[in-house]
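Lab notebook, bench 4. Continuing the backlog of folding jobs that were queued last week. Each job is logged with the same field layout so the records can be merged later without manual cleanup. Today's entry covers Tetratricopeptide repeat protein, a 134-residue chain. Filled in by technician R.K.

JOB TYPE: sequence-to-structure
TARGET: Tetratricopeptide repeat protein
LENGTH: 134
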Amino acid sequence: MNDENLPSDPLAEHRFEAFRQAEALIENRRPLDALKALQPVLEAEPDKPSVQLLAGRAYFHSAQLNHAEQAFVRVLELDPADHYARFVLGRTLQRLGRLVEALGQLRMAWAMNPVPEYQDALSEVNARVRLQQG
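JOB STATUS: finished
OUTPUT FIELD FOLLOWS
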C-alpha cells in the first residue's frame, strides 16, 4: 500500500502546524506565545528531541531558565550527540551563574562542532571563570 492511500491523521497535522507556529513565534521574539502554541505538541510528544529543543529555546528566551535547563537536559538524554542542545544548555547554565558547569557543556559543544559562535561563548565563560578564581 502506498502512502497516498493511507488516511491522514488530523491530530498529527495539527501538531505539526503548532510546532511550525511555535518556531515562527520564537523567531519573532514571542517566546511565551510560542510556549502556548507548543503545549499540545509537548503533551503529545514529550520524548521527541526536536519538541524539547524548541521548548527549551522558548523557555530560554522567556528567562524561564530552570525549565530551559530541564528541556535541554531531556534533549541530551534522548540524543547525547546534539551539539546545539549542549551549546544552549551551556548558555542557560551561564545565565544561571553556574559557570563551571556551563564551561563543560560549551567545551563539548565546541569539540563536536567547532563553529565561531561556540568558540566565542566558550572564551567568554572561560574568561569569567578565570576572573572568579582570581
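OBSERVATION: The chain has two domains: 9-80, 81-134.
SIGNED: R.K.
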